């Protein structure tokens, strides 16, 4: 049995939302930055133990706050991946407030925070950085290497069913 679930990717511009989506859906990565205008929609089926989840992934143009994203883009979301750029503190300084506000708008919807671009850090620097974050991320990922990308989307699929 296959169920369809709408997933939205949120976060500031340039954090890697499109790169994570491209890595997950197409197994590709591009060094060239291309800004998303509005929303880009992709689809991928994730096979879980007892069912398949057709993830309709809405890669939403980057904004400094989810309140600037059109409500229509968030309407009907079953899950959220909120992406931060570990190299840019401005993308996570208000993370706890942003997630709390998002939870009010989307109650009972799983939200996974993902710290992207981990490949740009040593293991020690990464550990030190995580201690400074206002919220613990679900995963530290790299769209470039693919590290933790599949695991993040698969975990969200599990939480949505």
UniProtKB/TrEMBL annotation:
Annotated keywords: GTP-binding, Nucleotide-binding
Molecular function via GO: GTP binding; GTPase activity
Presence of keyword Nucleotide-binding: yes
InterPro entries xref list: P-loop_NTPase, Rab, Small_GTP-bd, Small_GTPase
SMART domains to which the protein is assigned, alphabetical: RAB, RAS, RHO
Highest taxon above the source species: Bacteria
Protein name according to UniProt: GTP-binding protein
């Amino acid at each position: 049995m296959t169920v369809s679930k709408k997933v939205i990717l949120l976060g500031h511009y340039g954090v890697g939302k499109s790169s994570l989506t491209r890595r997950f859906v197409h197994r590709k990565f591009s060094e060239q930055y291309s800004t998303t205008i509005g929303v880009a929609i992709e689809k991928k089926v994730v096979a879980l133990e007892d069912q398949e989840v057709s993830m309709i992934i809405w890669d939403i143009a980057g904004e400094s706050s989810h309140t600037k994203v059109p409500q229509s883009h968030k309407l009907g979301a079953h899950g959220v991946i909120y992406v931060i750029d570990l190299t840019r503190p401005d993308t996570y300084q208000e993370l706890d407030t942003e997630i709390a506000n998002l939870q009010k708008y989307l109650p009972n919807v799983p939200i996974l925070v993902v710290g992207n671009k981990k490949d740009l850090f040593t293991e020690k620097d990464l550990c030190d950085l995580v201690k400074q974050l206002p919220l613990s991320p679900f995963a530290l990922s790299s769209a470039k290497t693919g590290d933790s990308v599949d695991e993040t989307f698969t975990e969200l699929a599990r939480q949505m069913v």
